[in-house]
Amino acid sequence: MIDGLFLLALFAVGLGLSLATYRLIATHYGWPMGAVHVSQPLIPITIGTVALLLGVTFAATRATEGGWIILGCGLLLAAFWTGFLRVGSQIALFLVPAAALLLVLGWLGSV
Questions:
Q1: pTM of the full predicted structure?
Q2: Under a CB-based contact definition with an 8 Å cutoff, are residues 99 and 91 in contact?
Q3: DSSP, residue by residue, 33-96
Q4: What Cα–Cα distance (Å) separates residue 74 from each residue in 10, 19, 56, 64, 81?
Q5: Of residues 80, 83, 82, 60, the one with CA closest to residue 9
Q6: Closest Cα partner for 9 from 76, 110, 107, 109?
Q7: Is the CB of residue 23 less than 8 Å from the CB of residue 89?
Q8: Given a cut of 70, is residue 88 above it in pLDDT?
C-alpha cells in the first residue's frame, strides 16, 4: 500500500527546499536561472519555503510513523534535484504548489 500523504510531504520538503535555495546556489556556481528566479526571486523563495514548512510540519506530526524518513529523503531529493538536474528547479515552480496543496487537502481529509 502506498501512503500518498507521505509521498506528497516528501516532495514538498525536497522540492520546496530546492526551490527556496536554487537562486543562491545557481548564483554561486554560475548555473542558468529561469526568468522568475532572475526577475522576481521572492516568488520561488516564498513558494518553496511555504511548501517546506508544510512538509516539515506534516513530518513532525508523523514522527513516530516515518516522519524522520520524510525529512531525510526530502534532503536527498533536494540535493539530487538541485545538484544533478540544475534547471529542474523550473519544473518545481509547478510541482511544489501542487504537492503542497494536495498535501494540505489530504491532511485535512484524514483528520
A1: 0.91
A2: no
A3: --HHHHH-THHHHHHHHHHHHHHHHHHHHTGGGTHHHHHHHHHHHHHHHHHTTSTTHHHHHHHH
A4: 5, 12, 10, 17, 10
A5: 60
A6: 107
A7: no
A8: no
Can you tell me whether residue 111 is helix, strand or coil? coil
Residue type at 87 in one-letter notation? V
Nearest to 81 by CA among 26, 39, 43: 26
The conformation of residue 103, written as its DSSP 8-state character, comes to H
Other CB atoms within 10 A of residue 83 CB = 12
Helix (H) or strand (E) holding 97: helix 89-110
For residues 70, 72, 75, 77, the Cα torsion angle rounded to the nearest 10 degrees is: -70
Residue 87 has pLDDT above 70, yes or no: no
